[in-house]
Amino acid sequence: MNKRYLLWAIALGLGSTLILFALLRLPVAPVRADPGIYYVRAGADGDCLSTETPCGSIQQAIALSGPGPGDEVWVAAGVYTEYLVISNSVKVHGGWNITFTTRSITGTPVIVDSNDVTHTVRIDAPDEAVTLDGLTLRNGRDGIHVYSGAVTVTACTVEHFARQGIEIDGGPSSGLILLQHNHVRNGDREGIEIDGGVVAILSNTVENVGRHGISVRGGEALVQGNTVQTSGFDPASDYYGIEVSGTHTVVGNVVRDVDDNGIYARGGDASIVDNHVEDVGGDGIRVDADCPSAVIRGNTVYSTANDGIDARAQTNAIISNTLTQIGKDGIHIEGVPEAEIAFNTVYSAASDGIDAEGTGAFTITHNVIGPNVGAEGIKVRDAGDSLISIIQHNRVQQVGDDGIDARAQTNAIAHNVLTLAGKDGVHVENVRDALITFNTVYSAGGDGIDARGARALTITHNVISVTVDGDGIKVQAADQVMIRENRINDVGDDGIDTRAIANTIAHNVVADSDNNGIKAEGTTTAIIEANQVYGSGEAGVDLDDAGVFTLTNNVIANSVTQTILIQTGAAPHNVLYHNTLVGSPTVRQGIGIEINVPGVTLTLVNNIVASHTVGISHVVGSGVVVSNSLLWANEGGTLVLSGTLSIFLDPRFVDPINRDYHLQADSPAIDAGADVGVRVDFEGDPRPMGDGPDIGADEFDLRDEFIYLPLVIRNYASQ
User: Fold this and answer.
1) What does pTM read for this prediction?
2) Going by DSSP bridges, is the β-strand pair 660-663/653-655 parallel, antiparallel, or unpaired?
3) 261 lies in a domain?
4) Distance, CA of 89 to CA of 148 (rounded, Å)
5) 36: left (phi over 0), alpha (psi -120 to 50) or beta
6) Residue 289 belongs to a domain
7) Residue 639 lies in a domain
8) CB neighbours of 411 closer than 8 A, spacing ≥ 6?
9) Domain end: 446, 469, 502, which one?
10) Which residues of 222-246 are buried (b: 16+ CB within 10 A; e: fewer)?
């Protein structure tokens, strides 16, 4: 070996030996069982450094920890009368047995009692990470007060506090704060209060506190999976289960038995999702007007003194909530420009199912309202003069007032089912215009549809059945109305009663009204076309000061008093074209056409008037011009005819007993009419189909009479 390398090797060996010998001669420090862990046992007086030498003070162990992350304090079961001040990184774990071999937070509890001196735990640890786990903290001003730091508090019980159970200031250099699986109870003020920071409040239980259960007044917070109960018993003011100010998310919480509102949001964008609220002294969920937006979805609210949901944000989405036993409105929105209310269920509300007031646009769809709603099922009010409401695909049943009461400026009310309304099925009032279409109304105490005070109304394709005391459709104080293709039966007053200025009443089927089938009163114009009216208790059509009117292609049968009544007043010249007017299918009944006001001349062309005790009757000073009409089985009257009298033969209806007034193939009415420019019949079939138009509302369909013979092709063999 090279001598130079040999000398280096000898020198290194001797040096290492000398260094090792010197280290062995130094004083030896006590050995810790697990470096970074400090041990505390009640009544002990050790140095905290091992399981054999625990100290008796948690604060002493905390003082030994840090700086830097990773140090832990393990605390054995017992009562520690002290308060804790933490300014560095540390994890404090309670619930250890006295030998530190097993841990049970409930079986071997650690109780820290600050004896009402100050906060039980004070944390002011900028840029440090602090964990409290498995401690019971009692008799403090605050149970835990966090001024700064990235703090995790889990599985702790905080009780008997004079102010807040847990208060988070979220000061400078604070990180994420996690409060999870804690039990906060029996305190004079807030259970958990957040004044700043980024905080996750997860799966805690707060109960029996004097003020708000959870109050978030600053910072950013996720409030999820908590249970808040028996809070707000301090009589000084109104307190809430969960109160949030600012932009926060409140999801999956249970709130019960609180003094005022269950969940209260203000001053930010609110997201309130999948919570359960019950037995509250105010609203179940309340969102204030200073919130730009609110999403309230999937919540269950049960037993409130006020509204189930009261939302007043600028934009509101209230979706898929269930509200039961509500002291006032199921859902209440007020003074808002925009709202979507969809797929909610409201059972048993003392006032309205949905009460919406605003200035912009509301969409109210696919909600189920009732039974046992005290007032309106759905009520809409315009707070200005520009609200648009769309109310569709809702089911409303057993409400004390109107099924739907809509008073926006523009309303679309469509595809709703309304059953057992105490008053009107649908009510619109003081609106600019409304479309009411494809609704079903059954058993309303008032009118099926009551529309009044409107510029323009379109009422189409509704089914209205059984109104106790009201009309099927009633229109008052409107400029223009279209009433088309509705089916109305078994109503307690008139089938249709319209008092608009200009009226079009077309293609409706009205059966078994207690009073008139169709009534036009105080109108300027009335076009009554292609309606079917059966079994009216009074007149089939009552024209009461109806202005200028035309009746075309109507089938009106089995009215008790008159088939058509013209009274009080009318324009001097009016026409009836292609109507089928029948008193009764079995006996003579009522007056076919009665005019009891002078100054009216009525022109009848292509009408069938049959089976009345009096066919046509008019007072002195009025007149009737009849041509190309079929008069059959009418006993007589005061008629003075002018014009071309038509036919006195049986019209030959298909099945009048079952309200089928189509013409049979051998009817004398076929091709016997005059051309008055009517190009379709009451069902929309083209007119005429033969040599001339048919008399009455039906144009016999010659296409049904064609006979098609088989075509036979013979095969001749060649010769």
Assistant:
1) 0.89
2) antiparallel
3) no
4) 12
5) left
6) no
7) yes
8) 380, 388, 389, 390, 391, 428, 431, 433, 434, 435, 436
9) 502
10) bbbbbbbbbbbeeeeebbbbbbbbb
Q: Which residues are CB-neighbours of 180 under 8 A, at least 6 positions away? A: 152, 153, 154, 155, 200, 201, 202, 203, 204
* Mean pLDDT score, 560-566: 98
The token pair at 166 is 């847990």
Q: Are 599 and 625 part of one and the same domain? A: yes
Q: What is the 3-state secondary structure (H, E, C) of 476-493?
A: EEEEEEEEECCEEEEECC
Position 143 confidence tier, pLDDT thresholds 50, 70, 90: very high
- What local confidence, expressed as pLDDT, does residue 230 receive? 87
pLDDT in the model for residue 414: 98
Q: What gap in Å lies between CA 226 and CA 602, rounded to an integer?
A: 77
Q: What angle do CA 438, 440, 445 make, to 5 degrees?
A: 140
| 92 within a domain of the structure (yes/no) | no
Clarify whether residues 436 and 583 are in a common domain: no
- Check whether 2 has a pLDDT greater than 60: no
Same domain, 575 and 472: no
Cβ atoms 400, 369 nearer than 8 A = no
Domain hosting residue 595, numbered range: 516-719
Task: Enter the tokens of residue 179.
Answer: 């409060």
Q: Which of 60-74, 257-271, 453-467, 524-538 has the lowest mean pLDDT?
A: 60-74
pLDDT at 705: 56
Cis before residue 67, ω within 30 degrees of 0? yes
- Give, in order, the Cα–Cα distances in Å from 646 to each of 584, 624, 631, 695: 21, 14, 8, 10
pLDDT above 90 (res 99): yes
CA distance 660 to 664: 10
19 pLDDT higher than 90: no
* CA 219 to each of CA 147, 184, 195, 246, 339: distance values in angstroms, whole numbers, following the listed order: 13, 21, 6, 8, 27
* 524 and 649 housed in the same domain: yes
Tens-digit pLDDT profile for residues 188-229: 999 999 999 999 999 999 999 999 999 999 999 999 999 999
Task: Using DSSP bridges, classify how beta strands 410-414 and 315-319 pair: parallel, antiparallel or unpaired.
Answer: unpaired
The domain boundary, picked from 463, 478, 502, lies at: 502
Per-residue model confidence (pLDDT) at position 384: 75
Helices (H), 368-419: none
Is 688 strand, coil or helix?
A: coil
User: CA-CA distance, 99 to 114, in Å (whole number)?
Assistant: 25
Task: Return the ∠ at Cα 293 (arms to 292 and 298), rounded to 5°.
Answer: 160
Q: Is the pLDDT of residue 709 over 80?
A: no
Average pLDDT over residues 336-346: 96
Same domain, 666 and 607: yes
Pair 520, 494 in one domain: no
3-class secondary-structure state, position 16 = helix
Q: Tell me how many domains the chain contains.
A: 2
* 527 & 497 share domain: no
pLDDT for the residue numbered 714: 40
Report the candidate in 575, 539, 533, 538 with the shortest Cα–Cα distance to residue 556. 533
What pLDDT, in 10s, does the model give residues 101-123?
A: 999 999 999 999 999 989 999 99
Is 598 in the same domain as 688?
Answer: yes
Q: How far is CA 256 from CA 194, 277, 426, 440, 565, in A?
A: 21, 6, 36, 38, 63
Q: How many CB atoms lie within 10 A of CB 21?
A: 9
SS (H, E, C) 62-113: HHHCCCCCCCEEEEECEEEECCEEECCCEEEEEEECCCCCCECCCCCCEEEE
Residues 6 or more apart whose Cβ sits within 8 Å of residue 307: 283, 284, 286, 326, 327, 328, 329, 330, 331, 332
Q: How far is CA 538 from CA 15, 176, 576, 593, in A?
A: 127, 78, 20, 13
pLDDT of residue 7: 30
pLDDT of residue 29: 32
Place of tokens 């506090």: 161
Task: Round to whole Å and give the CA distance between 498 and 516.
Answer: 12
